[in-house]
């Protein structure tokens, strides 16, 4: 018996130590400059740094001399996929959420149109890339935590599972996944009233690819996609976009994200295609690219917008990546954009904040999360004080449908309307190339 | 020794009734909401109706798995795929069969079609298990476990790859099939969630009753004989192969029924829960609940799901800044601890400890004045 | 006698026949894709490389299973840890030349992973050593989940940069010979596999500890009777399995870009390889691994490569149905397996 107790104690001690150490490991932001945010958020002063939801350590000096009314706390339910196979997409979303939560705490929340200040709490849950867990978590957010808006769904499968829950509970839901079927029923074409999304569509990406391929004169291509929802969708959209452009996919196949061998390359060799279009995210995109380059050093490779991360290049090595092209959100080339680009300020600010908060290079998926959360924050900031929960949720939904015009986000400029709950299309992407180990802007005239 | 052998059917019946009453009471709290208290308030928001419905659905799967693993001694590492068969059968036949098979629209929108589909799914799963079971169940011990592992993953990959065909029109590949209708009886819709709770638990209690019946019947005794020693059972005239296949088919039917109920609950079915990890979760629940008793099924599921809910809702309160990664770590550690200290499962382990504690209390009451020196606990 | 030798030749001919039929099928499918001998050679070589990785992981499974009877689901976690620790140590600043730095990181990572394997055994397996094998399997599952969660916390969800051994950079040296492409890392993988195989064989046959472990594997009670402590043997087996798993993870990392969840699928495939080899000996594991990798890759190459996983499990099912004892195992009768372990 005593041995068992010994074991138990040893185990618990180690567990506690690990967890204690790790609980400290959540990033403590150094003195990051306060964000000059968009729309309704008031200008802020240098924040008192805090770690997780609690009060600031010193009373923030308010510019207004009169006593400000503090209203109820607005809650935004945020559920990315922190663990599970989607963690590589969900982790940057998660970190962006943590960063925003800190910024919101530091500036004391948002001020409504009637001057009442409302603290904003971002409740973070993990969907484990499992639709069952996602549904449970979203139900919890809606019923137990009484959130005004739900931001969730790193992948399309999870988002689709959440859609009926949010619709039934009459809660606005912003997804961070890419398929258009999330906001619009594919069979009936009816826009889903309560659902919005932020990630660029794979169709737009495929259109850019078609444009580039036509410009280069390629008519026979191979398409390799990773075996995930994203990969499968890139193939489906590529078929939609390539056919009208007269491009034929002579060989299509999928490959394992964590595979070590790529027998697909042999088939690419014998199929006689002129270029390869790859639908994958790092590390899978890097792995397949290396395999292709080894066997066929001269075959052009075109990627999709999921690869717009520095990882993609670093994991291959700059030599191998040299010359690969892809449509990309502007976040990767923010410093080379012209100054009059409407997104430039927002992008540069996000890049600075994110790299300071996480010590990691910026990531498109984090951008999808930022857009979704900022849309939610902007929407709750528009709420007048004194509404009940149901009315608040309806008002947020209405704002999202009508109040988001020419709104610069990370993934694009949003123009939401009752017929379009998404609005990012061809123009939200741009075309980039890898040069000397970094992404550079690759405008059409240079193709 | 299994707990069951000590209990007679009367104990089981009483236990079942108690459980039914408690479930009904909890459901009543949610529907009527006396004094503004709904079900979730009973546990301060940790356990919700959603959790309870999922416990009910998985209990049905686990009853089958318990019969297979605990009584017949056949390890199955691919059961989530059978669960998925029911879910996909429901979703394909309720949503896509118009395009795929030409089922007329008036059938698709009728109230009885989903119920018929559920039965079709159960029949299909049972038939598949029967056909596949004959050659597979000849294998022993861990070889059988590997075969079920392989089969489970193969079925999962078929779900994920649209049965090998191009396009997405059958199983919807990774994104799955959305838009599954809710269950109805005539015009009575079994929704909102409080109604579904009753429906799911009626099914779960039915499954438990079925399981208890099997245990205490001739079939149950034959299964236990097979578990102890196949050779001896065969020597006694038990048709080992036939029983094994039959119980495998029964467990597949139960899993498929649960899958259909799950599909109507979730209204979107995607392949993620039916992978190898999903099968492993089911085996974990079975082991934690206890394989020697049918009661291990509901309690195993409840323990695992409630642990996860507690971690999800309260871990951030104890360790500020804790998040998904930490939940996973705690879950893993708790799992290991449970298996070290209660290897026979929570139900049997708890009962045993309670009896031990009672016996110790009685002993202390009988001999209060014994000197403590030299007495080792 | 006459009859058994007839049976043996009959069996042998049967396998040759199956092999020929498969070969014809493969060539037919390949011809539809315009495959030439070059493609087949490439697919085979790549498959053997994948197979070598599976072999390394399978060896870990076999060692633990033989000595303790436990199927160690945490083996995949050791693979991940080996690769990730090497990344961490390699990224530490040091004045040493890169090659030496990498070597020291590798050694340190293997040592750390071995310690973790030993710790896992003491803390989780040892207290439960009298429990049923199912309980022990669940415990290893719990350990795997915990280690994976800790890896996610420590190293994040993204893939990491791991230099290839030959060039010490991300891009590897590529050898082209008659149109076939072989990366330099492949030779490291094959070489490591052979080296580990030889070392393990030496260990089990010529050292006292190794022979004691073999004794434990053959008959646990008998080993105890002659003074061998099964607890110590269990400890040693976990340590060795952790080391071998770590080596597998390290040597494959330059190809796969290590991330926190690389252990799950690699572990599963390695497990399948171990079953195919018969779970009885390390040479069996190696054979199983190579065969699995080769068949899987060729099959995926001539058909739809997205279904590569399915081929691995089809092979598993076929093995279990027609030759459950694996390649090198001995078929046990029902009486021998009844009530064992």
Helix content of chain C: over 70%
Q: In what range is the share of β-strand residues of chain C?
A: under 5%
Number of extended strands of chain B:
4
Largest sheet of chain C: 2 strands, antiparallel
Radius of gyration of chain B: 22 Å
Determine the number of helices of chain B (DSSP H or I, runs of at least 4 residues).
Answer: 16
Strand order of the largest sheet of chain C: 1-2
Main β-sheet description of chain B? 2 strands, antiparallel
Helix content of chain B: over 70%
Biggest interface goes to:
A-C, 49 and 49 residues
Arithmetic mean of pLDDT of chain C: 86
Give the strand order of the largest sheet of chain B, numbering strands 1, 2, ... along the chain: 1-4
Estimate the global geometry of chain B from the Cα principal axes: globular
Low-confidence stretches of chain B: 1-7
The radius of gyration of chain C is 21 Å
Please give a quick description of this structure:
The complex is a heterotrimer of chains A (447), B (377) and C (341). Chain A folds into 2 domains: 215 residues, Response regulator (Rossmann fold, 3-Layer(aba) Sandwich); 146 residues, Rossmann fold, CATH 3.40.50.2300.
Describe the overall structure:
The complex is a heterotrimer of chains A (447), B (377) and C (341). By secondary structure, chain A is of the alpha/beta class. Chain A has two domains: 74-201 and 339-425, Rossmann fold, CATH 3.40.50.2300; 203-333 and 432-446, Response regulator (Rossmann fold). Chain A contains 13 helices and 16 strands. In chain A, a hairpin with a 4-residue loop joins strand 13 (407-408) and strand 14 (413-414). In chain A, helix 5 (202-216) crosses helix 6 (229-242). Chain A is globular. The termini of chain A are far apart. Chain B contains 16 helices and four strands. Chain B is globular, with a radius of gyration of 22 Å. A two-stranded antiparallel ribbon of chain B has the order 1-4. In chain B, strands 2-3 form a two-stranded antiparallel ribbon. Helix content of chain B is 71%, strand content 2%. With 341 residues, chain C is mostly helical. Chain C has helices at 2-32, 37-68, 75-90, 98-125, 133-155, 184-206, 208-218, 220-225, 230-256, 262-277, 282-302, 308-322, 334-337, and strands at residues 174-177, 180-183. Residues 336-341 of chain C have low confidence and may be disordered.
